Amino acid sequence: MSVLFETSLGDIVIDLETDACPKTCENFLKLCKVYYYNLNAFFNVSKDFLAQVGDPTATGTGGESIWSLIASQGGPSTPRYFTPEFVPRLKHRQRGTVSMAVAPAVGDEHKGGCGSQFFITIGDNIEYLDGKHAVFGHVVEGFETLDKLNDVFVDQDGRPLKDVRIRHVEILEDPFEDPPGLVIPDSPPVKPPDNSTRIAEDEDPLETMPEDEAEEIRRKKAAQASALTLEMVGDLPFANVRPPENVLFVCKLNPVTRDEDLELIFSRFGKIMSCQVIRDKKTGDSLQYAFIEFDKREDAEQAYFKMQNVLVDDRRIWVDFSQSVARFNSQWSNNPKMGPPLARGGRGRARGGFGGRDDLEETRRYRDQSSRAGSDYGMVFDVPDGERRHRKTRSPSPRRRERSTERPRRSRSPRPRRRDDDPERDRRRRGSRDRQPKDSRNRYEHRR
Hints:
Blueprint lengths: L1 E6 L2 E7 L5 H12 L10 E3 L3 E4 L12 H7 L24 E7 L9 E9 L12 E8 L1 H8 L15 E6 L39 H23 L13 E5 L7 H8 L5 E8 L6 E9 L2 H10 L4 E2 L2 E2 L1 E4 L19 H4 L13 H15 L12 H6 L7 H9 L16 H12 L3 H10 L1
Antiparallel strand pairs: 1-2, 1-8, 2-7, 3-4, 4-6, 5-6, 5-7, 9-11, 9-14, 10-11, 12-13
């Protein structure tokens, strides 16, 4: 009576002592039949000692007998463990001995016994386990697998750092009838029963991939990180946004080419939703590329194939599908003639501000105005208008403030000329004074 275990390190064939240990072998075979051991991990491996498996939780505290499993599915109440079968002639003397792990009794309610956990010895002459754990089989094939299992790297608890699992169990011969209430699943499980965070049993941490594939993965991760950053600052509506498939990117344009010229040329392929030549924000000069948005993707594809390298205004244009997602914000360019961004309902910088924050835009505008006005503010911060106006002036004295409240300030506008003022008469008066004799002027001054 044999069982084949297909593990991630190789195959192991176990011969069972069905005559000496019938109850233990029946429990073991029926658990194998219901795929109980499939995808179980070896959770305790001690070098030159043993390798333990059979706990679905991979903690060393789980597992139950086949009769307890049937009871949990709706059968009659049955204890979790059954009484172990100790046979004096079956000892832990040779490497590859298969033995059921016996759980100790805890108090009066929890009685010890055998459940589903078993171990395989990977060392010779471990006789001090005799009488403590019940031997019920021996490994007859797969000793090279035991050598690999003995050399695995484990942590401080004896758990392999890389999972070693039982992938499949094949019963070669079963002499026992199925117990009442046994339900056999239609297919083996496809997911491990435990929540392992170790290296997967089918994963090679030292495996290297070709340089081109590794470079492609690095570029993809870098693109994802950049997209996430642009989403955080508001330049992208969301990180996983895809460029529209109905928008063409046209470059190498002549600077004299206008929006209406391109729209007229490309309109023969279908309805155009928008056509815009991107221009410099300050000078308004063409940057010699444009975006053309069609109503249908098929029209954009047709224009892409037909307009490549076509002569437009003495220039060979280049046409490609757009990779920009700026259209999702509000518009393709930042042309101030297109209207206020807030009215267009855009996001990010199209709405004003930096990253969608209007306060940062306000401080930037204030900084620019201060630099144009010759202000010596070195930091960007908000200053109240009154404080900004009187920061460099001395506060008026109390007497001056009182005087200013009593009477209004005199106007500095020039005195209006009276109607009877005669410029010629004034000129004659000034001339007559200049022609007075010198002595008469001296007498007058002396008299004063």
